[in-house]
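Appendix B, Record 12. Input sequence as logged:
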Amino acid sequence: MKRRKMAVSSLDKSIVNLVTGVDHRILAIWAADCAERALPLFEELRPGDPRPRRAIEALREWVTSGVFRMADVRRTALDAHAAARDVQGNDAARSAARAAGQAMATAHVSSHAIAAAIYAATAFRDAAATGDEEGATMREREWQFRHLLEMIGTSEV
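Logged structural output:
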């Protein structure tokens, strides 16, 4: 059976439902946290390429300062995606860089947070040992779900 391009889990719908109505800045922090967890998968392969990390740092700066310049958001997000395109033969590293690019795009449109989280889960799936891909995806999506619940201060499970 052909592997899906993006990781999927039984929590996907719950996460999408949970994201609805959450404050934009909370989603940005969550997206940055998700992307940052996957970032070592990129940086181990490309330690001299700062573009995905810069995207996460720029998003965190936006959360703190509130200063929004669309040209900067766009450039920084697209730079992280360019880093992903530059990765050859390592799907985990590519997805980790894409998670950072999507996280940065959350400054512009909050729904990019969902894509950042999915790319992060995909990075962990692609880095998993053969036979543990589904488990790696589920562990990451469970962390993402619990982390967002904690951030919004709900006790839903």
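Helices lie at 12-19, 24-43, 51-65, 70-86, 91-105, 112-127, 133-152.
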